[in-house]
Specification:
homotetramer; alpha+beta; Butyryl-Coa Dehydrogenase, subunit A, domain 1; Butyryl-CoA Dehydrogenase, subunit A, domain 2; Butyryl-CoA Dehydrogenase, subunit A, domain 3; four-stranded mixed sheet; 13 helices; Acyl-CoA dehydrogenase (chains A, B, C, D); Acyl-CoA_Oxase/DH_mid-dom (chains A, B, C, D); FAD (chains A, B, C, D); flavoprotein (chains A, B, C, D); acyl-CoA dehydrogenase activity (chains A, B, C, D)
């Protein structure tokens, strides 16, 4: 047993921290203000990316801090999931930070899908420019009309008609679809509604300019539209595409999704942990810097206990996430289903709690845009729903637990 | 002991519910959508009130449902605080509802200040149009530069110079200042910084068009600007006004604030309870209407336990608030300090928790604007800070508790 | 709405407090020590009642503080449930206090059953000596072999054979059965297992010296046997009794139980609230009396916040209990099912939490017998199970809540 | 980073599990019953050890499962702290298990003190028989008269007079002092009350048969006296001993205590984790084996969510404890102070919560002695106080956290 990151991971981490300290941290308040101004009062059609972002991306690439998430040593950094995890945490401190290093969701997950399951032509057309950070992509799974927590509720279709596929359905919470560089969606739909539950779905690559694709609206998260990324509600109205837009074959969607989710959740959770560290730092700095009743407010009431509880919660969430990453690497996603679900519950709830306390100690400033806290709160709150709500993941953990005693669990819900 | 509202209160409640069911509830989704469109993309200078609001106000006044909060039988409905409380709860279900009945904060509190402490000319100039719903007012207490939880931190000044006062300072979270009809602020500042802590402050009536008053910006709450009301940061740059703009005399500010706070908190908390009832209703309806894993999601996992806990929490918060109201009426604000602080902690925390669960059961819709839930969440979250953060109120409750044992408490903070 | 107890209730409360302050409070530490010595190392067969108890009972009766729980003005004090509630709270502060006033469970509930449902001979034989405090009784419902939270699981039988009944089954948690004066059990069993669920049970009066009744053992609660009361596991081996030992007729058991439970839960919960007040007092006194790091430990960390939260929780639980009592009186037990279940969850959980914190502030003394805290803890913990576990009561509250929306609930369990 | 135990640790773990499965698990219910009978009704002076214990100790020693905690390869198993941790967890499942392998507290900590700090004669006299499991020892630190959470409150003295020491004071919660084989106490007291805070204390070896040593009484924990171990209150009345009974010199007590505490807390917490695993197993088995309302109660309400939360909490607590062990080994106790304090809060609280839920699902059986749950509860509850209460450890974690920002913390209490 050894809790030290590998030498390679530490070396990357050091360079990443140096880069962030020099280029990202001081830019953060500027970005938050200028990005809001740049995209204020504008319909998503007019969203623009802050010009400094492209510069920072170039700098990061130059510095060899690019595609760090990809275990492939040629296309990415060649870091294992466990080696990458601390880097993802570091990026999680700043909203726009992962993009600088081309490690932003959902592009990372989409690149992994293409990398593992894409055909060569699919890779050439989409993976290459994604790896270059030249375009952005979205992932279309959740649907507005049904409880998407139960995958068998999915209604969207990918009908195979001769050498074409017809993509049809309505999706929402398609994150990043408002970005000016968004070009392609990975779309999940039924290829055969009558097949076994895990063989019903397919995944298709849908260019966003294909006829029939229409962004109906952007959805706010607690009032925030997150420009220039956004979360779209998108209709796909019988979008016809050549058959080679299907990833692998029909019925493969569920397996691809499972493969995508494991590492993706590690990334998400590590970023949530980084965000929690930042919230705790803000809490402490504000609490130490303001006085009431003759003392820094940090020393009043139970505030120091909250600091301690936050530290314990963060450290535990981090260790659990690293352990899940290790289990994925050592035994595969299937053997780590319980741990993957566990961190999906633990990390966002922990983040929400700590951000809530950081808001409290900031008083009125905490609920405004004068700090990044409401943004972090919205992130945490949305994460408790996205990619399966807490309830579904608790049910998975319970199911694995009961199976140890030979007790068969019902699928999907702790009921 | 009797838990039934008075006959008069019940009679009003019945009529109020009928009015709300007929005019407000069906309009709510329309209002939320159209108000957002009306005031989207606009600077606060362009905010407008939805035209239906004025019509509804007229209807309510006609129906004798007007100024219900005011215990005076001629100017208001003549209901006691305890009689009014259930009406405030009923109004709390819809964001814009209290205004229909001219019972919206901060106007209610300001009208009470004018009613109890204003001179006749002050009443004629400001109370009359407020009672008519013709103008709106704001309350300027909290300051951006200091921890306002400790009133002794206040820096703003009301200097008396001959027959003039000079109002100087910066305030924020001045709610309602963006409203087109906002005309006057009640401003709290130091009239004598060297006096005893509770004799330092004064309150002045400051017309918002007085030279030197400047709205610096509007503050978002979790991304929401709450048009057409808004929460302003306002600078008062040596605003000169005749001495008769002072309410009562110098040094009276603290006493006036205390008198204002008791009933105001009852109002706030009862509205929060109404909001919680609505969140619980939304939770139940959504949970019963969506299926996953072969059951309504309401029946999955611990969801029904959450319904039960919510019911228990709401009922307890309501009873405590009513009890606090009763104690104010029976023994005066001073004897009810602990209870007033207690409900200020209990009600918003209860609301936040229930809204959080309602959001969860709505999935992605819950964090968007498709439901009123994020608005209710922001309300709850802000209430935990406004008018004294939870921590200050817990400290007050503890102080009163310790005093029962003759243990002297430190002022203001549980430390 | 009026939160003041009736004049009559206040008058009784005053006298009760005076009696407790004079006779009970100073005796409490003596009793706890001497009762432990008296009954230490002894099998339950040797348990004795501290001699001072009988003296105090005589004093209380003389003082007109006797059978206060009974709404009948001739046999008891003639106080309504709502008038009695504050008296029950006052008695809850000391473990042995209710017995002094002949208001101890389960005798109170059993007396109510006899009072409302007993025949004249049953009243003469059992109610009279119970009202005199001359004998004690037990209630035999829960069974060791099944989940008693679901009443349909009950296995014990009351077979009617000619003019006899045959009582057969095994019960446990029969509280008070170790008391030297325990003479009779109210036994619940199936009179017709095939009848409709609520018409299956009967209740019989079983003299504890009847052949076939055997106390198998006493059960400890967290290691405490609660001498001289005790909680017994009792076998009834085909106990033959004359038919007139049945209360009302066959099939009436469920209805009798329901009628018994409403007021009984008010009593239990009010006593729990009194116990919580005492725990909070102990917490404050100890916290103020010990120093660490240069301050009373009460002022360290979040301790004062805990005091405040405890005060809020106690006051809310009290108000909810009083409200439930009022609803029973005003609308009947059936209309108050949700509130009765709610307090059964709220009060013991609140007590457990506050006692836990009081223990914590006492350090090692808190887990020992040097304070009454572990006793109060065991009381709280057992109350969360007895008379229906939390889960069953939450399910009831949820069921009533859903019914408001026309959603049919499943019986008995939040699933 | 690697979460797999070392090959050596795994090998030991396998053998330990095999031994426990074969010899300990089946004996557990027998032991609990027979030990209670053996020591019932008896004063601690008559406590005896169940005869099977000695046999099991012999078997364990034979099997090479002896003194596993001691990193010394000759005297113990030579396992590192991190290698031993999973073994401690395995032993934590059964109350009497650690003793079988001579790994029971406080002997382990005392042996470590003697091993690291004892003189050769001290080792020969006390360490040797302790390593053989021939005698038992106690640790006397906590005092009844003061808040021992603040070490500067300590009043006991070790006065040096010529070539003698005089040990004087009163201690309590001296665990294991009732054991028939208990022979020696490590006693902490002031050697120089005027020295710097960390140089005031000394530690002395006090034979329990020395004149002036008197066990005043045994203290129950939630009513349990834990025979044949017990927790004693002990007076030391000017006990005169040769100077060589002092460990190291005067003023060294604090440093020795610190060195003792790190590994000791890892042991405690790992055992607590094993206990939590057992409680969760009991919860699941009982919940699956009893039915109510037509389903196993495990599937009712939020019970499966509780299983999931328990799994997450246990795994996080384990990882944090292992991480703390790793940090001690890698960087020393001083660098791991925050983590050591963190696990001291996290593990017992987690255990208490899970045991509480396991009790709930057992109904009445859960609070009785029919399961080991109340014993596990008492263990958890006492652990939250022993070796520094939660509050002191949270304060330590907060202090280390603030120091990262250069904010000086006050000593010892989150205030």
């Amino acid at each position: 047993m050894d809790f030290a990151p590998s030498a390679r991971s530490q070396e990357y981490l050091q360079r990443l921290h140096a880069f962030i300290d020099r280029h990202v941290a001081p830019f953060d308040p500027v970005y938050r203000r200028e990005n809001a101004e740049l995209n204020a009062g504008a319909d998503w059609r007019g969203w623009r990316v802050h010009p400094r972002i492209a510069e920072l991306k170039a700098l990061a690439r130059e510095a060899g801090l690019w595609n760090l998430f990809l275990p492939d040593a040629e296309l990415g950094a060649g870091l294992s999931l466990l080696e990458y995890a601390p880097l993802a945490e570091a990026m999680g401190r700043y909203e726009f930070c992962a993009e600088i290093f081309n490690c932003n969701a959902p592009d990372t997950g989409n690149m992994e899908v293409l990398y593992h399951y894409g055909s060569e032509p699919q890779k050439a057309r989409w993976l290459r420019p994604l790896l270059d950070g030249a375009i952005r992509s979205v992932f279309c799974m959740t649907e507005p009309e049904v409880a998407s927590s139960d995958a068998t509720n999915m209604r969207a279709q990918i009908r195979i008609e001769g050498d074409e596929i017809v993509v049809d359905g309505r999706k929402w919470w398609s994150t990043g679809i408002g970005h000016p560089d968004a070009r392609v969606a990975i779309f999940m739909g039924l290829t055969d509604a009558d097949a076994a539950p895990h063989a019903r779905h397919g995944m298709a690559l849908v260019p966003l300019d294909a006829p029939g694709v229409r962004i109906e609206r952007m959805l706010p998260t607690f009032g925030e539209y997150d420009p220039p990324y956004g979360h779209g509600e998108v209709s796909f109205d019988n979008v016809r595409l050549p058959l080679d837009h299907l990833i692998q074959g029909p019925g493969q969607g569920f397996a691809i999704a499972q493969g995508r989710l494991g590492p993706g959740r590690i990334h998400h959770c590590m970023r949530a942990i980084g965000a929690a560290e930042r919230a705790l730092e803000l809490l402490i700095r504000r609490g130490a810097g303001r006085e009431a009743f003759g003392q820094p407010i940090l020393r009043l009431g139970g505030n120091l206990e909250r600091v301690a509880q936050a530290r314990m919660a963060i450290d535990q969430a981090r260790l659990l996430t690293l352990y899940a990453a290790w289990k994925i690497e050592r035994f595969g996603v299937k053997q780590a289903m319980s741990e993957i679900s566990a961190i999906k519950v633990v990390a966002p709830n922990m983040l929400q709690e700590i951000v809530d306390q950081a808001i409290q100690i900031h008083g009125g400033a905490g609920v405004s845009h004068d700090t990044p806290l409401t943004g972090l709160f919205a992130l945490a709150r949305a994460l408790r729903i996205a990619d399966g709500p807490d309830e579904v993941h608790r049910a998975m953990v319970a199911r694995v637990e009961l199976a140890k005693y030979g007790i068969g669990g019902k699928r999907g819900a702790a009921a």
